[in-house]
Amino acid sequence: MEPTGKIALVIAGSTLGQFEASPQEAIRALLPEALAPLCDVVEWSRQPSSHYTIRLTTDLLEMLRSLVRDGYGGIVVASGTDVMEEMAYLTDLLWPYPQPVVFTGASSPARRSSNEGIVNLQQSLIAAASRPAWGLGVLVCSRGELFAASEVAKVYSHRGQDFMAPGTGPVGEVVLEDLYIGRTPRRPAALSDLVIPAKDVELLWASLGGGELILASLARTEGLNGLVLGGFGTGNVPPPWIPHLKTLIRRHVSVVVASRCQMGRVLPLYDFEASAKRLFEMGVLDGGNLRPLQARLRLAVGLGAGMDPRELQSYLQG
Q1: What is the C-alpha to C-alpha distance for residues 258 and 266, in angstroms, rounded to an integer?
Q2: Which is one GO molecular function term here (predicted)?
């Protein structure tokens, strides 16, 4: 491995940051010997990832962009795993640089999974320092595998192999001290300007006969910027939702439908009440092959960038 330059290790709240004192020296002792002189530890936050918000993640992103401007050749972000896939995806949407950002963490508290966290940290640093990772965007490293932020999902709540990319698999792997890339992921074109995403974008999952009371409340909520529907199958929702969705659309609230399925996309296959085809006719935007969590973040970024409905639809499909 030929390092590409200085590497920043950002502590953003993972179990790696749960030291009683400053983690600087404790973490330095865990670094790969060849990379330790090239690595600077940046202690940014110790809070659990479940406490993060879109705005707080944007603040983290702004700091990461400043590190690239300061000359760092790669960045590792050690954070909690609860919302890592969302933090990584939002970062990827606004990461126009070739330098890699690698998110990593551990699935259990440090006292129970110290070896897992150490291995993930070391392999993430190897990946972030490697030239083959340049141009791949934001990655998530778990158990030696590298996943694209646009594809990764947390699939286990507590097991070590908690991240996978359903339908695609990893883009590469770390073996010993080298990074091997098997394919280049398809990722959305990153916005070059740092956009402040809209913060009041909600997500409502379709369930068997459920959701109407929640949607009725949202339809009465002032200040709602956007709403993503996690629809059944190819994008269908329960019929009782329709009057409330019409209310939101009349109020010019952007509504997007995505499929709650792990793979596949929204399609106007059926012409019954509350089908995806009828939703499109009402003015609901098509989330394409985005998962609902991704569609929410993409919508928030698009609204923050001031996109009109036509631009939003293009951005959701891009």
Answers
A1: 6
A2: asparaginase activity
Find all residues with CB under 8 Å of 199, minimum gap 6, and list them: 53, 54, 55, 225, 300
Tens of pLDDT, residues 158-199 = 766 789 999 999 999 999 989 999 999 988 889 988 899 999
pLDDT in tens, 248-268: 999 999 999 999 999 999 999
Two structure tokens written together for 151: 């594809």
Which domain does 173 fall in, by range?
A: 7-181
pTM of the entire predicted model: 0.94
Q: Which two tokens stand for residue 121?
A: 């940290």
Indicate if 40 and 74 belong to the same structural domain: yes
Is residue 35 situated within a structural domain? yes
Residues 6 or more apart whose CB falls under 8 angstroms from that of 201 comprise 54, 225, 226, 227, 228, 296, 299, 300, 303
Contacts by residues 173-176 (CB-CB < 8 Å, ≥ 24 positions apart): 173/144, 173/145, 173/146, 174/123, 174/126, 174/127, 174/141, 174/144, 174/146, 175/144
Inter-CA distances, 150 with 71, 89, 91, 318, Å? 26, 6, 10, 12
Tell me the CATH number at 168: 3.40.50.1170
